[in-house]
Amino acid sequence: MGTHNERVARGTGSRAERKELFVRRTAPWSIALVASLALSTAGAAAATAAPSPSPASASAAGSALTASGYRYDLATGTTNDPRAAARVAALRAHLPADWRAREAAALSRFGVEASAPREALGRAIDGSQYQCAPTKLDAFVDSALAGIDPSSLFILSLVGGLDFPTYDALLFGTSGDPAYALTKASRNELTSSFRAAQKFWDTDGSNIQLMAMHGDLMLDRARLTRLVAVLYGVSQADAAEVADLVVDVVSSDPGLAGGGNPIFTLNAFAFSGVGETDPVISALPDKLVFGDGILQALGAIGVGDVGPRAVLGHEYAHHVQYDRSLFDSPLTGPEATRRTELMADAFGTYFVTHKRGLALNTRRVLEAEQSFYQVGDCAFTNPGHHGTPNQRLRASAWGSGVAADAQKQGHVLPSLTLDRQFEAALPGFVAPDA
Predict the structure, then answer these.
(1) Which residues, at least 6 apart from 143, have a Cβ–Cβ distance to it below 8 Å?
(2) Is the dihedral of CA 277, 278, 283, 284 positive or negative?
(3) What is the pLDDT of residues 77-112, one digit of tens each?
(4) Residue 254's domain spans which residues?
(5) Phi first, then psi: what are they for 28, rounded to 5°?
(6) For the whole prediction, is pTM greater than 0.90?
(7) What is the number of domains present in the chain?
(8) Strands 58-61 and 287-291, how do they pair?
(9) Rounded to whole angstroms, how far apart are CA atoms 20 and 161?
(10) Is residue 333 part of a domain?
(11) CA–CA separation, 241 vs 234, rounded Å?
């Protein structure tokens, strides 16, 4: 989900540019769309709950929302909500005049999906040909957003705050820093699965750092100051003022749970800066990052036993793609991203069900993935389209089948051989099913 920067969507051809598709969230959801959904959903909830002599209403049109008598316009950054307007004024006082453009430039530079909707590509997948319906994730997101004040979401969306944990983990996270340590509940399972993946694949994963991102960043003034200074190119003093405003928004809204609301970390992503020309990005270590929110979501939709390992298998598959240059294809836009995501689904399931991988029970994995891939997305025209639930399940079932049908039980196919077999099977995965 979300939008990818245009030079990637056009498929300009360099490895670094194509690879940039995955210097971003590679989970089946993103805060990019949650941001716009959040304003509508939370606005409606707030309007319903707000005491008023007459029924309140909320409606979203494009990037604007009206809730409880106030209008919030993301495109212009304006509102008639006095409290939110004062906060916007404070932001403008400590950010450069072109701060919205700088935010967009940071999204493009670091490959984080944008929060604002962009134009659909001219070449798009025809959604009428595919089965796609509301998913279990929708209900989870609705519950996460239900208690959040729409003015808080407005401010956070304007300043890019919903993406701050992702930016922070990407730019500053290391596996040796306690601030990015995996939670105690997930550490053993994810670490052992990660090590198994390093041994399983015929690529060098020794330089990949496994780490977490946590929402507590949103109350950490020092780390926020550091981040804002880099993202917006402002002085430490101005960055500290913006950080204080963000802390105030997050700490004053109970619905944000002090940064503990999963909307801040509802993703996992793989990152590699190898081949990048930007010296800041190329200097960063390869990473595989898990947000606390994604683990919470997996438990909530009933796949907590298998889901985290399936996600890890998928994300590690992106590192196999980095290493083997498997992003290159004649496809562009949504079709290109769908191909690489379905490949990661197939490769990931191949690993988790293979005798020499995690050797998980195939039936249980596919049962869990049938539920897990209900978070496949239906954004057919979006350059970040990951594939429909049915397509993702087909790719995963294929991966487990290849593992089961190996003539030499226990034999692991070379990644390039598996890729050739996947490319041959891909048309069947994406065939219309409506």
Answers:
(1) none
(2) negative
(3) 999 999 999 999 999 999 999 988 888 888 778 776
(4) 6-429
(5) -75, 10
(6) no
(7) 1
(8) unpaired
(9) 22
(10) yes
(11) 11
